[in-house]
Amino acid sequence: xxxxxxxxxxxxxxxxxxxxxxxxxxxxxxxxxxxxxxxxxxxxxxxxxxxxxxxxxxxxxxxxxxxxxxxxxxxxxxxxxxxxxxxxxxxxxxxxxxxxxxxxxxxxxxxxxxxxxxxxxxxxxxxxxxxxxxxxxxxxxxxxxxxxxxxxxxxxxxxxxxxxxxxxxxxxxxxxxxxxxxxxxxxxxxxxxxxxxxxxxxxxxxxxxxxxxxxxxxxxxxxxxxxxxxxxxxxxxxxxxxxxxxxxxxxxxxxxxxxxxxxxxxxxxxxxxxxxxxxxxxxxxxxxxxxxxxxxxxxxxxxxxxxxxxxxxxxxxxxxxxxxxxxx
Amino acid sequence: xxxxxxxxxxxxxxxxxxxxxxxxxxxxxxxxxxxxxxxxxxxxxxxxxxxxxxxxxxxxxxxxxxxxxxxxxxxxxxxxxxxxxxxxxxxxxxxxxxxxxxxxxxxxxxxxxxxxxxxxxxxxxxxxxxxxxxxxxxxxxxxxxxxxxxxxxxxxxxxxxxxxxxxxxxxxxxxxxxxxxxxxxxxxxxxxxxxxxxxxxxxxxxxxxxxxxxxxxxxxxxxxxxxxxxxxxxxxxxxxxxxxxxxxxxxxxxxxxxxxxxxxxxxxxxxxxxxxxxxxxxxxxxxxxxxxxxxxxxxxxxxxxxxxxxxxx
Lengths: 328, 313
Prior knowledge:
The complex is a heterodimer of chains A (328) and B (313). With 328 residues, chain A is an all-alpha fold.
């Protein structure tokens, strides 16, 4: 339990660092980006909007930084993330509407990729030295392909050329209306296939290679030899070893989630899929700083939450963490 | 220092060769590029031909020239970022592992915090605040990338330093009164080299990935050619939908190839650090020749005859 609490503490500190960075960066960055933004927006948006931006980023308030910080923090606790410049809506409202697409897409893809990748890794590790080893260079190459690039390739071949999948979007906007009806749900499932496939393919190899290496290391442990000596069936020995080899993968889960989420956000852009990634790209392009900040916080908190879940899973799987309160 | 010799592992050789080619391209790329990458007067959307080995873009630019010239910008930024990040991770990782105590705890929390914050969104936010002129400066972008990418290296270096700190030879150096700095760099340092190299390669890999991603999003100056901006232009002109594989494909494949080269070298380093990974690495040909079973038996490391052993190590 002590370990879990420590991790929780770390994530709280991290969240605080992210929040504070969000507060400080636009204020302390050289070249004063906010002033430039306001100059650019003059005449393009309402005076109220300019005032809101000034308030949010502490322009021309003549308040000491620490007072601004207090306001910022208390606003954040009440869920105020400011007003999006381009969408003219509160940022929290914008994000609340779009995040479910992202969670559905990336969550499904992450779980699938972990399960498939780890299973393949077990098999390839078990059969080390056989012809299956030839997969390694290919997997390395696959792992090195940027997520968004693989997405583009898949669209090019399977959607634009073969017409097996829809090209972009989250559902058929021409025929379906949002809501709990079968047509819409089926359409959402169909449109999510290719984005999910592209995320799974890009992230699969990492799990697979890591698991293979751990498996190779684990099967030369004495307890595996012992299991063989007892005459257990091979399949049983394999799962016996696999259960022990999977621990580092789970421990690394926390580390990898950040990468996976970052990569997947771009897949949304390629598929023109609604969600946080798409918002992020638009926010950057339009210099919509309030939205950008909100997205950064949201993604960071989500990743931290996922990390904590991964830690809890590790805690459940590895009895040693419960006894000594230490990870390794 | 021992005389240099080619590493035996095929993976490392292929990886080194690949990396060598990319470094060569970085240096000579702009000289061997057949055309000006910005020149728009060629036939538009032409598929590969003898005049344009990788075809042309929708603006009538030569893809191969863009690819060759883009190599330099991609590699320079990535190497700057990789080296800077590695320096930060050495300072923080080794100091935290060696000094221990409160300092260690503080530095560990610091690197764990940076590890937990998702790097790319942070980078995007940081980059968007940069003054427009600075977004093209390789040193600035490299530093920003390094700032988000050092934590992983610091963590592995700390772990390794921690495990070395109490070994007998370090203890001996301490007893004979060596200075701390000398122990750190003279005794512990050389033993960190494999991990250090692997962490450097990983960081360069990370830097290639995020830099091209930033460029793909159009967050760097889109008129400087690198592989990311090529993909940016291809994406914004829907080259994928139009099936212009010669435009979309090459930059992405280059990114993947440099990634593969670095990863292959890292595999070799992994096998060097963890010899068990090597046990399965005896090629099937050698195993068959020496009469060993085709598939390695669990828990048993086959003993091969001397004549074949040389090739198997």
